[in-house]
Design a protein that fits this description.
By secondary structure, the chain is mainly alpha-helical. The chain is built from nine helices and two strands.
């Protein structure tokens, strides 16, 4: 049986955000919060969730943000609110991972779709919450309706990524064309414009 992608947002929600999933969610949250040296959470209540994305331009795979007053950087609004970002690609690129001693490393390794069977078994044997999450995913993989929704979400993500790439490519092409027009107005030669923009002589002649 093919392993479902743990980071498919539909499957992630079914594995961690439903009633009865408190054990694995609590374990994951404590693994995340451990790096900020917080007290261990002992109880959580699962409520309606929302997701959003953001780009964080630092090298660390795990970053933590707080709410500070804009003009007074030493004025923290509250220490009861933190925003954690985890970049899975940056984690996967780490040369070494400490799954034995670092619970967050264990969870992020578990989330890797390409994990080997032996490594997955080792994680399951090592961590009861990961065992429970894996059992939930196996259960979900045998539900035809869940699989239908999972595949729909995968296709939607593929379509979204393709659309973003197409839009990006079109934007780049438009920018090259606009640059070429500007260079023509500056009386630069077609050869110079071709070198500057990457456009072909035929494309430049058509402007």
């Amino acid at each position: 049986m093919q392993r479902l992608k743990p980071l498919n947002d539909f499957i992630f929600g079914k594995t961690f955000w439903e009633k009865g999933d408190e054990e694995q969610l609590l374990s994951l949250l404590n693994a995340i919060l451990a790096t900020a040296k917080h007290k261990t959470l002992v109880r959580i209540e699962i409520a309606e969730h929302r997701t959003f994305t953001a780009e964080v331009s630092v090298d660390d795979f795990h970053t933590v943000f707080h709410l500070w007053e804009d003009s007074h950087k030493d004025c923290l609004l509250t220490d009861a609110l933190e925003i954690h970002f985890i970049d899975v690609k940056k984690f996967n690129a780490l040369p070494k991972k400490d799954i034995k001693n670092d619970s967050l490393h264990r969870w992020l390794t578990f989330f890797d779709q390409s994990i080997s069977d032996d490594l997955l078994k080792g994680l399951i044997d090592m961590d009861a919450a990961i065992y429970k999450a894996n059992e939930k995913m196996i259960f979900l993989a045998n539900d035809k309706e869940v699989l239908r929704l999972y595949n729909m979400r995968e296709m939607a993500q593929i379509d979204y990524n393709s659309g973003m790439k197409k839009a990006g490519d079109e934007g780049k092409a438009e920018a090259k064309t606009e640059t070429a027009r500007n260079l023509l107005e500056m009386n630069m030669t077609h050869e110079q414009i071709a070198k500057a923009t990457g456009l072909t002589p035929e494309e430049i002649n058509s402007l």
